[in-house]
Amino acid sequence: MGGHPVNLAELDARHVWHPYATVPPAVPTHVVESAEGVRLRLADGREVIDGMSSWWAAIHGYRVPEIDAAITGQLGRMAHVMFGGLTHEPAILLAERLAAMTGYEKVFLADSGSVAVEVAIKMAVQATGKRRLLTVRGGYHGDTFGCMSVCDPVNGMHHIFSGAVAEQVFAPVPPLGYDAPVDQAYVDEVDRLAGDPAVGAVILEPVVQGAGGMRFYNPAYLRAFREICDRHGLLLIADEIATGFGRSGELFGCDHAGIRADIVTLGKAMTGGYMTMAATLTTPEIAERIGLLMHGPTYMGNPLAAAAAGASLDLLAGRPWRAEVGLIEETLRKGLAPAQASVADVRVLGAIGVIECHEPVDMKKAQDTALDHGVWLRPFGKLVYAMPPYSCTEAEVATIAKAMVAAATA
């Protein structure tokens, strides 16, 4: 570089294409130099609380000694080995741990959440012999083509790729509100759609619809979906990538309704935000119906990621996560209340806080406002939301809430 200091932000703008971003970028990106605890240190010297858990994964925060040690210890043995015909201790122990946590005995380790959903769709197609899935509007399941086909067809991405993705069957968006009364007409409409002979499975996000709109619905609808699947002989796929590992106040989203799905996808918080890894889990009965599953990622079962996941799950088991998530919920409810009078909606569930504005948010203005309050947020559409790390103090969560209100009303 000729001895001159490198302008990373300039190089980033010139060469890097960021997620959901235009070229050239419409909103500037911020260079992060380091992270520790629940804070990011930006290149301009500011330290800000990461209100996003870096997209919902870093539940323990950053530079966690136990996870650091697990990865560095594994690095001294091997960083990677193919999973076809070979196996290794970190992946075996992780699969055993996930099976014990969930009750699903068969674990397929994937590279990312989107891949885990693709695998779940393949499992359903192979197990049932049917090509279509029933899902709900307002959902989000990932960015690859199978995933896009079951994302919201209007507000999601797949209207851009109309004709290129598989056509699925869509029920209306579940009525909003965790405590809202059940609309029997809605349940009846889902039951009618489930009778489509081409449908072999239902896929949905249990209780919390994430990137499709940050919406919460009554767990009674999840129980209704389970009953409808049983009545029509359909498999139920629960996409727990965003809801898994305590985020909604229960260990898994399905726990709110006391039901079990047939296939489950996990990811994000599984590795504590350290490495990309996800999993698709099912029962021995379904696995035997499938037989040969036609999928095999190069980095499947990566030892470093499996070691990180094992350490992260150990930490989760040993920390009072229910109390931590409960405190986050209580603090967000209190802190977001002042916005209620001037916005469309305020909603909180577990360690998830959402402000829905009347109009689309000016992302640059909202992000700058949050940064001025010492918090990193990433709004989208009409939403300013946060998913704090569980290790946040009450004061840090209060700061996040204050930044959210300021960003939403800026």
UniProtKB/TrEMBL annotation:
Q: Where does substrate bind?
A: 55, 140, 268, 296, 378
Top-rank lineage group of the source organism:
Bacteria
Gene Ontology cellular-component terms listed = cytoplasm
Q: Which GO terms describe its molecular function?
A: adenosylmethionine-8-amino-7-oxononanoate transaminase activity; pyridoxal phosphate binding
A biological process (GO) of this protein is: biotin biosynthetic process
Which pathway does the protein contribute to?
Cofactor biosynthesis; biotin biosynthesis; 7,8-diaminononanoate from 8-amino-7-oxononanoate (SAM route): step 1/1
Q: Where is this gene product found?
A: Cytoplasm
Kindly state which reaction or reactions the protein catalyses.
Answer: (8S)-8-amino-7-oxononanoate + S-adenosyl-L-methionine = S-adenosyl-4-methylsulfanyl-2-oxobutanoate + (7R,8S)-7,8-diammoniononanoate
Keyword list (alphabetical) reads: Aminotransferase, Biotin biosynthesis, Cytoplasm, Pyridoxal phosphate, S-adenosyl-L-methionine, Transferase
Positions of the record's site feature: Participates in the substrate recognition with KAPA and in a stacking interaction with the adenine ring of SAM: 20
Has keyword Secreted?
no
Q: Where does pyridoxal 5'-phosphate bind?
A: 113-114, 239, 297-298
Task: Assign the protein's first listed, main location to one coarse class.
Answer: cytoplasm
Which Gene3D superfamilies would you find in this protein's record?
Aspartate Aminotransferase, domain 1, Type I PLP-dependent aspartate aminotransferase-like (Major domain)
Give the Enzyme Commission number. 2.6.1.62
| Cofactor(s) recorded in Swiss-Prot or TrEMBL | pyridoxal 5'-phosphate
N6-(pyridoxal phosphate)lysine PTM positions? 268
Is S-adenosyl-L-methionine tagged as a keyword?
yes
- State whether it acts alone or in a complex, and with which partners, per the record: Homodimer.
Protein function: Catalyzes the transfer of the alpha-amino group from S-adenosyl-L-methionine (SAM) to 7-keto-8-aminopelargonic acid (KAPA) to form 7,8-diaminopelargonic acid (DAPA). It is the only aminotransferase known to utilize SAM as an amino donor.
Family according to the record:
Belongs to the class-III pyridoxal-phosphate-dependent aminotransferase family. BioA subfamily.
Q: What is this protein called?
A: Adenosylmethionine-8-amino-7-oxononanoate aminotransferase
The record lists the organism as: Herbidospora galbida
Name of the gene: bioA
